[in-house]
UniProtKB/TrEMBL annotation:
Localization, UniProt: Cytoplasm, Cytoskeleton, Spindle
Chief localisation class: cytoplasm
Listed InterPro entries: KIF11-like, Kinesin_motor_CS, Kinesin_motor_dom, Kinesin_motor_dom_sf, P-loop_NTPase
Kinesin motor domain sequence ranges: 24-444
Database matches in SMART domains: KISc
Origin species: Ilyodon furcidens (goldbreast splitfin)
Similarity field: Belongs to the TRAFAC class myosin-kinesin ATPase superfamily. Kinesin family.
Keywords, in A-Z order: ATP-binding, Coiled coil, Cytoplasm, Cytoskeleton, Microtubule, Motor protein, Nucleotide-binding, Phosphoprotein
Coiled-coil segments: 502-563
Keyword Transit peptide belongs to the record: no
Protein name: Kinesin-like protein
Length: 619
């Protein structure tokens, strides 16, 4: 039996010099209840046993790959895992929120960044945990309720301060504000119309379907509200902007962008010049109440499932990311920005290389790179932290997902993960894989740098040398005098290089060239491997089909020979029959009754000879 995880005293927060704090990454486990269908399919074989509030053991069922290999003496059939906290099948959505995310919501409201991942195989309860259902709202609606409750009557209604790049904000002129309002109204109106047609929607769908439900959130005992909010007399105001996007097949798609044509256009990940990745041209929408939040969520979910259907894929193959940005404003001055992201990861089983040849061929171009790289990064982070002599390169930039959330692993916010599992015997091997991944993630230490100060973002300077920041926000007039991003970035560029001095640019280009070369080499090797694998598989298939064909021909020959033999027998019998019949017919024709014959003989004896008659009688 193995025991993975750190002793509980290491899970505590530690204050480091310079005000930074370090803490083990919080990994929670949620075990979902069996469905009726699963119980009747005999899926309950005591594979998952919750031992206490932090420990779970997994017992391999008969027939699982894990059991088979343990019978051969490879590995064990029982595994024990520890988590920050384990939530059993009876845990309510409210309890889960209280014990996992609530403290991060506090931090978010106080100006810090937070990221929640839900990780697990398909059908393990990830979406249920993040979004929930109408009756049972998940984490996301609860965070929204808490945020609006916190903002109370201190909402900034102007809409002229908008998130920009990763950590900054931009001043919008009246025309731009008008455009913002129009775009938002178009989405909200489209949801209202569609909502009217969808009254019959099943309550189990992870959507919040009515305004009345949302308003009941705040009053419902079911949902936590926060007592802390700005003092009534305070001049502080808050603006909440949200974005919703998905990463599918290493392409980013905006879920709040109405899809006018059949083909969705993908967005790029850029660098803001301070090493922070952001999604360029992502649509940010300012929301003023829960009802608007609800409609945007519906709009995004609908967009996601419609796209999945079009591509003949399930939405569980993409990562869905809902991000909120809270701007704290005093007068017209931006005081701080904080970010809260909820990431519903794609089903983890997609990473496994257990596909048959045909499926592998189909999915060769679709391997979920982001999930593989996330695992790699977590592994590297853990290794770097446990063996400080061997600090290695962490491949954050190898996938869109890790690029975007790199900051969370580098001291600019807290990330935690909710691991979802089901208890089914048939998916045991996948579940074990998820648990092993979580055990590694749990050992990652996060360092939160200077948690009380949140920078409003990089300081940008225009062409004329004037600072782009005015009172903590980017001045749009100065921005206009600044080189446009398109001037500086060609289509292939990934970073917003305009913000770097020349020598750094040259260094960056050199680094990028080296990385590109390495990347190309790696891709080439990978491609060769895949080609070889496919070639081998094809050859194998050809040999098998050749063998099959020869066997079929042999069988065909045998069956023809048998048929020929039978036909020959039939003919022989028929000829025999025919010869017999002929003989019988001849006999009949030549038959002379005995008395006639005797009379003829007597006649002959008497001397009357009829030669013809005599001849007939004889023959
Ligand atoms: N804690 C729970 N209590 C009751 N039902 C649950 C719970 N968790 C999940 N379910 C139900 O289990 C089913 C699968 O859950 P869900 O769709 O959230 O899985 P998922 O991991 O998001 O799957 P996918 O990756 O395919 O999107 C749903 O019908 C959901 O309502």
């Amino acid at each position: 039996m193995i025991k993975v995880g750190f002793p509980s005293h290491l899970v505590q927060q530690t204050v480091m010099s310079g005000g930074a704090e370090q803490q083990m990454m919080q990994i929670y486990l949620r075990v979902r209840p069996f469905s009726k269908e699963e119980l009747s399919a005999n899926e309950d074989q005591d594979c998952v046993v919750i031992e206490d509030g932090q420990t779970v053991s997994l017992n391999a069922p008969k027939g699982s790959a894990n059991m088979k290999s343990s019978e051969k003496g490879i590995g064990l059939s029982i595994h024990k895992f520890t988590f920050s906290k384990v939530f059993g099948p009876q845990t309510t959505q409210g309890e889960l929120f209280e014990d996992t995310v609530k403290s991060q919501v506090f931090d978010f409201l106080e100006g810090k960044n937070a990221l929640i991942f839900s990780y697990g195989v398909t059908n393990a309860g990830k979406t249920f945990t993040i979004q929930g259902t109408l009756k049972d709202p998940g984490i996301l609606p609860r965070v929204l309720v808490a945020t609006f409750h916190y903002m109370g009557g201190h909402q900034y209604k102007e809409m002229d301060l908008k998130p920009y790049l990763r950590n900054g904000a931009q001043c919008l002129d009246p025309d731009q504000v008008k455009q913002e309002r129009t775009a938002k109204m178009a989405i909200l109106a489209s949801v209202r119309e569609e909502g009217d047609h969808q009254r019959t929607r099943s309550s189990s769908e992870p959507l919040i379907t009515s305004d009345s439900c949302l308003s009941s959130f705040s009053s419902s005992n079911n949902l936590t509200v926060f007592s802390g909010s700005p003092a009534e007399a305070s001049s502080e105001q808050f603006a909440l902007w949200v974005a919703f996007f998905e990463i599918y097949n290493e392409c980013i798609y905006d879920l709040l962008q109405p899809t006018l044509s059949k083909k969705r256009s993908s967005l790029r990940v850029c660098d803001d010049g301070a090493g922070n990745a952001y999604v360029k041209d992502l649509r940010w929408i300012n929301i003023q109440n829960l009802s608007e939040a609800n409609k945007l969520l519906q709009f995004g979910n609908k967009n996601r499932s419609a796209a999945a259907t079009k591509m003949n894929q399930s939405s569980s193959r993409s990562h869905g990311i809902f991000t909120m940005k809270l701007l704290k404003i005093e007068g017209k001055t931006l005081k701080r920005i904080s970010e809260f992201s909820l990431c519903d990861l794609a089903g983890s089983e997609r990473c496994n290389k257990t596909k048959t040849f045909g499926e592998r061929l189909k999915e060769a171009g679709n391997i979920n790179n982001s999930l593989l790289i996330l695992g790699k990064c977590i592994n590297f982070l853990r290794n770097n932290q446990t063996d400080r002599m061997k600090v290695g390169y962490i491949p954050f930039r190898e996938s869109k997902l890790t690029k975007l959330f790199q900051a969370f692993f580098c001291g600019k916010g807290m990330a935690s993960m909710i691991v979802n599992i089901n208890q089914c015997a048939s998916t045991y091997d996948e579940t074990l894989h998820v648990m092993k991944f979580s055990a590694v993630a749990k050992q990652v230490v996060q360092v939160i740098q200077d948690k009380h100060v949140v920078s409003p973002g990089p300081c940008l300077v225009g062409r004329d040398g004037k600072p782009l920041w005015r009172d903590g926000v980017i001045d749009n007039r100065v921005l206009e005098s600044y080189l446009s991003e398109d001037e500086l970035l060609d289509e292939e560029d990934e970073g917003d290089m305009s913000l770097l001095p020349q020598n750094e640019l040259l260094n960056t280009i050199e680094n990028l060239r080296t990385k590109l070369l390495a990347e190309r080499k790696k891709n080439l090797v990978q491609e060769m491997e895949i080609r070889k694998e496919m070639g081998d598989a094809m050859l194998q298939q050809l040999l098998e089909s050749e063998e099959l064909r020869i066997r079929e021909i042999e069988e065909l020959k045998e069956s023809h020979a048998e048929k020929l033999e039978n036909t020959f027998e039939l003919y022989r019998d028929a000829i025999k029959e025919h010869a017999y019949q002929c003989a019988m017919n001849n006999l009949e024709d030549n038959y002379v009754p005995l008395d006639e014959f005797t009379a003829e003989q007597e006649k002959a004896e008497r001397g009357v000879v009829d030669p013809a008659a005599r001849f007939d009688a004889v023959f």
